[in-house]
Write a structure and sequence with these properties.
This protein has helices at about 1-15, 80-85, 100-110, 120-135, 145-150, 165-170, 185-200, and strands at about 30-40, 50-55, 60-70, 115, 140-145. The chain has a 5-stranded mixed sheet with strand order 3-2-1-4-5, sandwiched between helices. The protein has one domain (about 1-200): Ribonuclease H-like superfamily/Ribonuclease H (Nucleotidyltransferase, domain 5, 2-Layer Sandwich). Helix content is about 40%, strand content about 15%. α5 runs parallel beside α7 (about 185-200).
Length: about 210
């Protein structure tokens, strides 16, 4: 009931009714794996430099259905941040307007659940843009792959440490690295993680958060 009230409230706040499709029933078996590169880790102040997403359908990654865009930033791309996201000023020469990019992203995602690695960060920073442009936060449900992975590990003691680093999960799941960690490669590798973990876990452990 609370979920229905929240959806009703979000719809009432939507500035552009063209985006009502975000609340449609999603198609069973379809997901979007998503990753962002940003100027920093502050979801309230930092900006998105690139967004990539791939479609997962019927337990397959549909490579012909990918989304990959660089966004114009109002901030200088500092040298220290380049060492983190590896996006150089030259990469942003043909970057697109953020509003146009976010609109294209929403049309690509639709109402599908979003899969990601520490996806709450990506959703929070994207939602800052969507709230400004269309009046609401990103309403899609989400699936966190690190949580799925955690649930596959049997701890010998209550205090045993489980390494949830991206590269560790990749290695333990025997998923090949695709090269540099840019948004598109990370979205594809995350999709590969998700599909493998989906096979390893029951329906009960593949959970959604809003």
């Amino acid at each position: 009931m609370f979920k229905n009230l929240m959806i009703k409230w979000q719809k009432s706040k939507l500035k552009d009714k063209e985006f009502l499709f975000l609340f449609d029933e999603y198609i069973e078996g379809e997901y979007i794996s998503l990753d962002c590169e940003t100027t920093g880790l502050n979801t309230r102040k930092d900006e998105i430099l690139s967004i990539a997403a791939v479609l997962i359908k019927d337990n397959k990654i549909i490579m012909r259905k990918t989304f990959n865009v660089f966004l114009k930033s109002s901030k200088n791309n500092k040298k220290e941040s380049i060492t983190i996201h590896h996006i150089r000023p030259i990469d942003l020469e043909n970057a697109k307007d953020p509003k146009e990019s976010i609109y294209e992203l929403l049309n690509f995602i639709g109402s599908r659940p979003i899969v990601g690695y520490y996806i709450n960060f990506d959703i929070k920073i994207i939602s800052r843009y969507t709230k400004d442009y269309i009046g609401i936060k990103l309403p899609n449900e989400s699936i966190e792959v690190s949580s799925m992975y955690y649930r596959t590990k049997k701890k010998t003691t209550e205090y045993e440490f489980i390494d949830l680093k991206f590269d560790t999960i990749m290695k333990n799941l025997e998923i090949p690295e695709l090269g540099k960690h840019d948004a598109l490669n990370d979205a594809i590798m995350t999709a590969m993680m998700f599909l493998k973990l989906k096979k390893m876990t029951s329906a009960k452990t593949t959970f959604f958060t809003s």
